[in-house]
Amino acid sequence: MKESQNIITIIGCSGFIGSHLLERILNTTKAFVYGIDLNSKKIQPFISNSRFEFLKTDISDIKSIKPVLQKSSIVVSLTALCNPSLYNTVTLKVIESNYNKPVEIVKLCCEYGCRFIHFSTCEVYGRTVESYCRESTLESVLKEDETPFVTGPIHMQRWSYSSAKQLLERTIFAYGVEHALKYTIVRPFNFIGPRMDFIPGIDGEGIPRVLACFMDALIFNKPLFLVDGGKNRRCFTYIDDAVDAVMAIIKNKKIADKQVFNIGNPDNEITIEQLAYKMIGLYKELQPQKTSSLYDVKPISSLRFYGEGYQDCDRRVPDISKAQSLLGWVPHTDLDTALKKTMSAYIEHYNG
Ligand code: UGA
User: Fold this and answer.
1) What confidence score (pLDDT) does residue 4 get?
2) Active site residue: 161, 175, 183, 310, which one?
3) What is the per-residue pLDDT for 66?
4) Residue 191: CB within 6 Å of ligand 1?
5) 86-95 per-position pLDDT tens digit
6) Domain segments of the chain: what residues?
7) How many other CB atoms are found less than 10 A from the CB of residue 144?
8) Which of 123, 216, 277, 349 could form a cystine bridge with 162, CB 3.0-4.6 A?
9) Gap between the Cα atoms of 68 and 62, Å rounded
10) For residue range 298-308, what is the model confidence (pLDDT) as tens digits?
11) Class of 80-196+236-267+314-333 per CATH?
């Protein structure tokens, strides 16, 4: 039994999800939080909180991290290179950041008896079976403990991320079976909200995820690109709903142990093409003074947009009945509300 039950370490606390989780834990619990990250840009309001200590380092810096983990009852692991434009361009770094580095944290949590709450990805499911085999009778809704993983050939490096995450999930599971690691795995489905991603050339470089790409286009009057026509679908999940789920996992220690949970909003499914037009409509509502602008929506091939080795997930709809029955969790934020809140935050932050 750990001496202190109330110490939570968030690895990746200054990222999009980490910053929201940190805020919620500090505001709604009495826990002490150690935060580990390479910078503290997104968590400035919490830096001087007496129940928070920030450690500026990389997760490979085991020597500095060890004493923090030794004191922690719960470790939430969020660090990842999780941007699709990286999977086929800096593949080795993606594998390193999503498997080699975090696996060392898994081992330490096992050694020190910490509860390990790991953020995996909905991308472990890969593509739908129907995308390869039209006559498949498998259900298209993704179930944590039943759905097979369907990715693509090795030269399609897009799947490096999915595979690294999958191997880490399998390693965590094995540590649970062979060494009694206490763990919960979360598979997030396209979380959106304030503080996500970056705008290229302003506070980051490269290609962010679709929400930020479209906001870049809307704010700075660039075309909205539909990769391969924008026919693929995603279920967007508002960050506050996602954090509700993590808090329920933290609270329900026994029930959540050795479980994998899809955390997503199946009611918020939309094609990327529909998303582009919806965001244009919402942007005009939020910024009526800019309505004279004509927003250009253009198809583009994935080869031009992402380069060689990109292959898309066609559709991923989470079955969330396990989170509902075990944790009492359901998402509440519909797509329009989630988009409006996220887009308003972008507009405020980037003077859009
Ligand atoms: C990514 C990660 O790989 C997942 O692991 C992660 O869980 C997920 O984001 C997430 O945010 O939760 P993906 O959904 O493919 O997966 O990421 P996006 O970059 O947001 O792409 C969504 C879709 O929009 C893709 O079909 C992409 O090709 C398309 N897209 C992207 C456009 O059509 N235009 C753009 O400008 C950008």
Assistant:
1) 52
2) 161
3) 97
4) yes
5) 999 999 999 9
6) 80-196+236-267+314-333
7) 19
8) 123
9) 10
10) 999 999 999 99
11) alpha beta
Q: Tens digit of pLDDT for each residue in 177-190? A: 999 999 999 999 99
**Angular region, 195: left φ>0, alpha ψ -120 to 50, beta rest:** left
Report how far residue 240's alpha carbon sits from residue 260's, in angstroms, rounded to the nearest whole number: 20
CB atoms within 10 A of CB 253: 14
**Is ligand 1 within 6 A of the CB of residue 267?**
no
Q: Which two tokens stand for residue 36?
A: 């580990």
Helix, strand, or coil (residue 33): strand
Per residue in 142-161, pLDDT (tens digit) is 999 999 999 999 999 999 99
Q: How confident is the model at residue 1 (pLDDT cuts 50, 70, 90)?
A: very low
Mean pLDDT of 224-240: 98
Q: Is 333 in the pocket of ligand 1 (CB under 6 A)?
A: no
Structure tokens at 29: 């619990």
Annotated active-site residue 34? The verdict is no
User: Relative to the CA of 165, which ligand 1 atom is closest?
Assistant: 5
**Distance in Å, CA 212 to ligand 1 centroid:** 10
CA proximity to 98, closest of 116, 79, 117, 85: 79
Instruction: Please check the confidence at residue 29 and state whether its pLDDT lies above 80.
Output: yes
CA angle 321, 326, 327 (to 5 degrees): 100
Q: Which amino acid, 192?
A: I
**277 C-alpha vs ligand 1 centroid, how far in Å?**
16
Best mutation site among 192, 210, 241 for ligand 1 pocket (most ligand atoms within 8 Å of CB): 210
Which token pair is 129? Answer: 């079976």
Q: What pLDDT is stored for residue 131 in this prediction?
A: 86
- Residue 227 CA: nearest ligand 1 atom is 33
